[in-house]
Specification:
Number of strands: 20
Shape: elongated
Strand order of the largest sheet: 7-10-13-8-2-18-17
Radius of gyration: 38 Å
Number of helices: 27
Structural class: alpha+beta
Distance between the termini: 25 Å
Strand content: 5-15%
Helix content: 40-55%
């Protein structure tokens, strides 16, 4: 019956078979899921889906070529092994070239980029291409081997969870659609390649006959699993995350990145990491500072560090270090007034000498660094300095430390260890709650501040060198005053720059109109964000080119970075020196099983950016303009809701496909008859014989008479006349007439109906 000679290569059949290979499709799906993770995160998510789809198409084409090499290897082991070595070498060259391309003008190495959370680093096409080439050859090799060569369901399961592990190492959720597609693809692949042993209880059927029920099971199972409501569970993971968690590793990597860059774009505040960084013993919620930045770039929306932030101050090689003063600069001015009555009278401070100020309570906090739990030997380069810190009175570090100009504590020569402990004394946040203290600040503000600093320096220096150098409290006041005295001109130079932005200047003037003091202006600027519909949204993706001006006047949506940056610029436009700071908000209370005394803990999700404003008479004060989740809650769908919605869509699509699958046999039968009546008699007879073979599942290696016997055996139908006509048309090359064409169509219809009846009698679902 077959029209072509046996053994002749059929390119159409070859390409159809290889291009519909389920292994190839599954490999493309896995690589697409992986590449979505390494998308450019400054773009919208739909760009990420297109990005992943493009890589999936590339995988489909490249995978087809790779699988042809693997097919050859199965038949020619020695030569095939050499071909695989050459293929691996070719990919190795590609990986090396890609990494070298990505390394140009990029601050970190490929391995650090790969291991670091992608929402904490900038997109790098070269590194991404290197990752793709490396994983493509690996995935194609293991998936092909453990399905076609040696079927191992456990190994295939390990391959299946690799994409989930890549996402999980950064505490990122894979998109719901990709989760369902990967799961369905895995189920279909495993069932399709399941090897059965022959026995009396096992009946083999053609694999193509089993595809429909397998597909129906997979899509209905996936859709139902997505739709069925799940219980909402909120578990306390803090203990296990502290004991053993890959997120500790990623947090360590983020810390390492700080050694490579001296700028901040706030990307870390959009991270999904939730790793415990510090545990603490404290009586209060605290704001912690680790870094300060002075220069803002409107073009790329980044802050950079200047000398005024990080030049060394006092150094020490023991475990103590002076940081501030109990009442800031007010201590120095009040002390000078006590020492010199002329000074007090000149600046109107005599009444405060007699009555004193309301001194904030001195409190203590103790921090335990938690990165060492997973065994890293080094941690961050700066210590967690609490707001209004006066002194670091304890540290386990063995080596030199210094107080930087920005008010942070820095480890010289090497970082703090990842298991370091720190103890601090700090002032309670009550100074500005006292009317007496506010009056003191107001009085200071009336003076020529530069002259006031000079006169204060003269009074304190004279007393210091005369008889007060052995008084520790006085020495600390004197040292802290000396920093601001030395740097005040730099504050005016670096911390009043707002880019001469007219819109920001106009807004700052409008907000602070009617305010009499700098502190009142600062509070007005802080309150502005709460009163004007600004939104806090971790998922908001800034478009390329967006900066603080866009946040203030257009989008009004962002995270702490945008709020803090905007308040700093507004304060500068209002004439108040200001700088941008980063650190953590410590607000989470809970008992710990690691450090029994700890009653607070700080995680990477507590990372925070905030402004510090220089209030004349006191010094640097931090403020909180960020409209947090507690104030403005963004409407977000839970993962379960998203999964359910995606499940409904997929199940609906699957049902349509299944419905079409059941209707298709009847529809194709009708279409065949209509088309048959339009063909020539000879073409119709040939098509009828091939159609009968397809319906009955008969291989085309049989003769026409053998087909007659198989059809009669299967359903009792008689196609003898059609077989004779087929032989005459094909082998005898005779012309047929319309009557003979109708006879062939009539036998086909009877054979089709007989087959359907036979299947119903056996209880087999229509194909």
């Amino acid at each position: 019956m077959k029209e072509t000679k046996k053994g002749i290569f059929d390119p159409k059949a070859f390409f159809l078979r290889t291009l519909t290979d389920p292994i190839l499709w599954y490999t493309a799906l896995i690589m697409a899921a992986l590449m979505f993770h390494y998308r450019d995160r400054e773009e919208e998510d739909w760009h990420g889906y297109i990005f992943a789809a493009v890589w999936g198409v590339v995988t489909y084409v490249a995978g087809w070529l790779i699988f042809r090499v693997f097919d050859y290897m199965q038949k020619h082991h020695i030569i095939g092994f050499g071909m695989y070595i050459a293929l691996a070498a070719l990919f190795g060259v590609g990986v090396r070239y890609s990494i070298e391309m990505g390394r140009e003008d990029y601050p970190i190495e490929w391995m650090l980029w790969f291991l670091t959370p992608q929402d904490s680093v900038d997109y790098n096409f070269g590194y991404t291409l290197g990752f793709y080439l490396l994983f493509l050859l690996f995935m194609a090799s293991v998936i092909y081997y453990f399905t076609r060569v040696r079927y191992r369901i456990f190994m295939n399961f390990l391959i299946f969870i690799i994409p989930f592990a890549i996402y999980g190492k950064e505490y990122e959720k894979m998109p719901t659609l990709l989760i369902i597609l990967l799961t369905v693809g895995y189920i279909l692949l495993m069932v399709y390649y399941r090897q059965l042993s022959d026995s009396e209880d096992t009946v083999f059927v053609d694999r193509r006959h089993s595809l429909l029920p397998i597909a129906a099971y997979a899509v209905i199972f996936a859709g139902a699993a997505a739709i069925i409501p799940k219980p909402e569970i909120e578990a306390d993971r803090s203990y296990i995350e502290t004991l053993i968690n890959a997120e500790q590793f990623t947090d360590k990597l983020v810390n390492m990145l700080n050694a490579f860059r001296d700028t901040s774009s706030g990307q870390q505040f959009r991270s999904t990491q939730n790793t415990v960084v510090y545990e603490a013993v404290s009586d209060d919620d605290l704001r912690i500072k680790t870094e300060t930045f002075s220069t803002y770039n409107f073009n790329n929306d980044t802050w950079s560090i200047e000398e005024v932030d990080n030049v060394f101050g006092e150094r020490t090689d023991d475990n103590t270090l002076n940081i501030g003063s109990r009442m800031g600069m007010a201590d120095a001015f009040l002390e000078a007034a006590r020492l010199d009555s002329d000074y007090a009278e000149k600046y109107g401070l005599t009444e405060f000498v007699n009555s004193g100020l309301d001194v904030p309570e001195l409190k203590r906090v103790f921090f335990y660094s938690m990165n060492g739990i997973i065994g890293f030997s080094s941690g961050a380069s700066t210590a967690p300095v609490p707001q209004f810190a006066v002194r670091m009175n304890y540290c386990t570090r063995k080596g030199k430390m210094t107080r930087l100009r920005g008010g942070t504590v820095y480890a010289i020569d090497s970082s703090f260890t990842s298991s370091e402990n720190f103890g601090f004394e700090y002032s309670a946040d009550t100074f500005f709650l006292s009317n007496k203290n506010l009056s003191f600040i107001d009085q200071i503000a009336k003076s020529d501040y530069r002259q006031l600093l000079d006169d204060t320096f003269d009074v304190l220096s004279y007393a210091y060198w005369r008889d007060s150098s052995d008084n520790e409290d006085f020495e600390q006041i004197y040292d802290y005053f000396g920093i601001d005295y030395e740097l005040y001109d730099e504050y005016l130079d670096k911390h009043l720059n707002y880019g001469k932005n007219a819109r920001i200047k106009a807004l700052a003037d409008s907000i602070t109109e009617g305010c009499e003091t700098e502190y009142e202006k600062a509070l007005a600027l802080e309150r502005y964000f709460y009163d004007h519909d600004y939104n806090y949204d971790l998922s908001y993706k800034k478009k390329a080119g967006e900066n603080a001006e866009d946040f203030l006047f257009e989008t009004k949506t962002g995270v702490c970075y945008e709020y803090a940056t905007s308040m700093v610029l507004l304060a500068r436009a209002a004439g108040i020196p200001a700088r941008y700071c980063e650190g953590y908000n410590m607000t989470k209370q809970g008992t710990s099983r690691i450090n029994e005394r700890a009653n607070y803990y700080v995680t990477t999700q507590d990372a925070h950016g905030f402004p510090e404003l220089y209030i004349r008479g006191y010094g640097w004060v931090s403020f909180e303009p960020t409209v947090t989740d507690a104030v403005a809650v963004t409407d977000k769908k839970s993962a379960t809701d998203m999964l359910s919605r995606a499940g409904i869509m997929i199940l609906a699509a699957a049902l349509l496909v299944l419905l079409f699958s059941f209707v298709y046999p009847w529809l194709s039968h009708k279409i065949f008859i209509i088309r048959g009546r339009k063909r020539s008699p000879k073409d119709t007879v040939k098509a009828v014989m091939h159609r009968i073979c397809k319906v009955y599942g008969i291989e085309n290696v049989n003769t026409s008479q053998e087909v007659c016997g198989l059809v009669h055996e299967a359903a009792g139908a008689d196609i003898t006349e059609t077989a004779l006509l087929f032989d005459r048309a094909v082998y005898g090359e005779q012309m047929l007439d319309e009557h003979e064409k109708e006879k062939a169509l009539e036998e086909y219809i009877k054979a089709y109906d007989s087959y359907r009846e036979a299947k119903k009698r056996r209880g087999i679902t229509n194909r």
